[in-house]
Each structure stands twice: as structure tokens, then as C-alpha cells.
């Protein structure tokens, strides 16, 4: 009986148990936190060194006129822009706009930006009529670049125009907002009616 009582008291008093004191647990948590912070500090020091090297490299570049080498001079709507019959049912229900950003050298370049497209009927006897408008964001525009015989963005829109409207000259107007500079460039082109 005495032996059983001693075992119960030993278990109740924590003798022989492996429980840690709350202060020991706190010290261990602080040591782990210190190790994590030391690792973060080391990572920041490595990144800081990389940034300093990049600043030195950029400072060593020759200074020219300060002209942005990526600045666009204009945008133009290419001649293939028009209405197409996408499913060969005899109706032209697709407007394809071929857009070319042009740099200062006159070269067509791939440029990020937002494109706002409008389709106008400027021949309407009741006054100018906006037939449709669309906007393309930079992420979507990036996927529309084609480079074959010519390089440009091919932007397609589904349209439902009457045969009477397609028999008139319609004007495509574009506004291109350059993602790099914020500059706004514009162009427009008349789409002449095609015989059916």
C-alpha cells in the first residue's frame, strides 16, 4: 500500500516527468525567433548588395540626350483592317483591326499598352453615329501580337452590322495608351465597303 501511495504522489508532484518550465519554453521560442530574424537580415543584406551593384552599373552607362529609346512615335491601323466572315455563312460578323506601334526609326515594335477602339458611321445623314466601342488591356493585348510577313497586333471583335451599314464606309478610330510612358497616340482608318 505504501508503495502505491508513493507512486501516486510522485506522479502528482511531477517527479520524473519531462514537463518544461514556462520560462524555458519562452526562451526556446525567442531563440527560434532570433534565428529566423537573423536569416531574414542576411537575405536583406544580399538583396541590398544586388541593388547597389545594379545602381553602380546603371550609373556607369553613358549619358546620351536623355531620349527614351523605347518611346513610340505613332501607332497606325494597317491596311488589312476590315470586316470578315469568320464562319463562312455569307455575313461579315468579325471586325479585325491590325494595329502597328511605330518607334522613332519608323520600325513596327511590340509595345505594351491599352487600346480603345471605336467604330463610327461618319456618313450617316442624321449625324455621326458611334456603332461600337471596345477596350483591350495590356495583358490581353500581349497575346494578340503576330509576327509573320508583317508584325502587328491583330485585334478581333464580334459585330452585328446590317448589310445596309456594311455597304457604307465606316471609320475605325483607335487610342493607344503606352504602358511605359503613359503617352496617348491615335489613328483612324476608313473601311471601304466590299462588294458581296
Could you please describe the fold and organization of this structure?
- 30% of the residues lie in helices and 33% in strands.
- With 196 residues, the chain is of the alpha+beta class.
- The chain has two domains: 2-59; 72-191, Immunoglobulin-like (Sandwich), CATH 2.60.40.
- Strands 1, 2, 3, 6 and 7 form a five-stranded antiparallel sheet that branches.
- It starts with a helix and ends in a 5-residue tail after the last strand.
Q: State which percent range the strand residues make up.
A: 25-35%
For the record, give the distance between the C-alpha atoms at the N and C termini, rounded to a whole number: 111 Å
CATH class of the largest domain, named: Mainly Beta
How many helical elements?
4
CATH architecture of the largest domain: Sandwich
SSE run: HHEEEEEHEEHEE
Unreliable parts = none
How many domains comprise the coordinates?
2
Which structural category do the helix and sheet elements fall into?
A: alpha+beta
Please tell me what the overall shape is. elongated
Helix content: 25-40%
* CATH topology term of the largest domain: Immunoglobulin-like
Number of strands: 9
Radius of gyration over C-alpha positions, nearest whole angstrom: 34 Å
User: What integer is the average pLDDT?
Assistant: 84
Amino acid at each position: 500500500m505504501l508503495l502505491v501511495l508513493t507512486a501516486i504522489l510522485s506522479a502528482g508532484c511531477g517527479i520524473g516527468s519531462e514537463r518544461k518550465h514556462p520560462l524555458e519554453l519562452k526562451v526556446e521560442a525567442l531563440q527560434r525567433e532570433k534565428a529566423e530574424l537573423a536569416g531574414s537580415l542576411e537575405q536583406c543584406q544580399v538583396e541590398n548588395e544586388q541593388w547597389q551593384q545594379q545602381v553602380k552599373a546603371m550609373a556607369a552607362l553613358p549619358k546620351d540626350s536623355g531620349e527614351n529609346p523605347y518611346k513610340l512615335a505613332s501607332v497606325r491601323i494597317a491596311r488589312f483592317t476590315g470586316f470578315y466572315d469568320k464562319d463562312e455563312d455569307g455575313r461579315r460578323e468579325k471586325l479585325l483591326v491590325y494595329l502597328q506601334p511605330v518607334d522613332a526609326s519608323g520600325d513596327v515594335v511590340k509595345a505594351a499598352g491599352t487600346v480603345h477602339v471605336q467604330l463610327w458611321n461618319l456618313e450617316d445623314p442624321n449625324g455621326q453615329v458611334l456603332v461600337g466601342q471596345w477596350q483591350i488591356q495590356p495583358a490581353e493585348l500581349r497575346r494578340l501580337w503576330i509576327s509573320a510577313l508583317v508584325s502587328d497586333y491583330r485585334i478581333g471583335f464580334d459585330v452585328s452590322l446590317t448589310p445596309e451599314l456594311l455597304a457604307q464606309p465606316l471609320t475605325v478610330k483607335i487610342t493607344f495608351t503606352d504602358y511605359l510612358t503613359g503617352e496617348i497616340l491615335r489613328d483612324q482608318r476608313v473601311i471601304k465597303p466590299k462588294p458581296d
